[in-house]
Amino acid sequence: MDPLERERCFAEWTTRHAAIFHRVANAFARGSDRDDLMQELLLAAWKAIPAFREGSLPSTFLYRVTHNAALTWKRGERSRKERTEQFQRLTPRSDATGSPDFDAQDVQERQLLLLYEAIRELPAVDRSLMLLSLDGVAYTEMAEIHGLSVSHVGVKLTRARQFLVNRLQGGPR
Questions:
Q1: Residue 71 and residue 8 share a domain
Q2: Which of 25, 30, 115, 123 could form a disulfide with 38 if both were Cys (CB 3.0 to 4.6 A apart)?
C-alpha cells in the first residue's frame, strides 16, 4: 500500500467511523486521559492499516484495533498514574476539582456521563463488549473480535448489563 492510499484510507475511516473512536475513548478514560487515549486509538488505527485484509468490514477491523489498543492502554494505567502523581508533587497544584459541572448541561448529557462513568467501572473486556453491544455489533462479531465463544459473550453481557442497571439505580457495585 502506498502512502497516498494509506492516507486516503485513514481519512475515510476516521470520518466514517469517528463514533467508534469516541465511544471507546469515553468508555476507557476520563478527563485529559480521554484525549491521550484518543491519540493512541488513532495511532493504532494508522499503524494497523497495512494489516487490513478486505475479508472483513472496516468497522469490524476498527472495533478490534481500537478495543485492543484501549485494553493495552488500560493495562499501562497504573504506571501512567504513578508518573503523573510524581510530576504533580513537583509542580504547583491547580484549583480544579475534576468534577463535572452539570449546571450548564442538559439532562441527557448528564445521563450519558453517568452511563460512561458506570461503564468505566466494568472490567476492561466487559467494557469493550458493552460498547460493541451499544453499537449494535452482533454477538458472533464480538466473539471474533475478542476470541471468545458466542455463549461466553452473552453471559458476560448479561452480567455487565445487570451491573449497569444496579449501578445506575444506586444499587450495590
A1: yes
A2: 25
- Report d(CA 41, CA 27) in Å as an integer: 13
Q: Is 139 in contact with 150 (CB distance < 8 Å)?
A: yes
Contacts 24+ apart (CB under 8 A), 77-80: 80/33
Specify the pTM.
Answer: 0.64
Closest CA to 117 of 108, 125, 127: 127
Read off the C-alpha cell for 160.
455487565
pLDDT averaged over 10-residue windows placed end to end, the chain, 173 residues: 90 95 93 91 95 88 94 82 65 48 61 89 93 92 92 96 90 61
The Cα 95–Cα 88 span in angstroms is: 13
Q: Strand, coil or helix: what is 27?
A: helix
Does residue 98 lie in a domain region? no
CATH code of residue 153 = 1.10.10.10
The backbone torsions φ and ψ at residue 41, rounded to the nearest 5 degrees and listed phi first, read -65, -45
Distance CA 42, CA 63 (A): 12
Grid cell, residue 93, equals 497544584
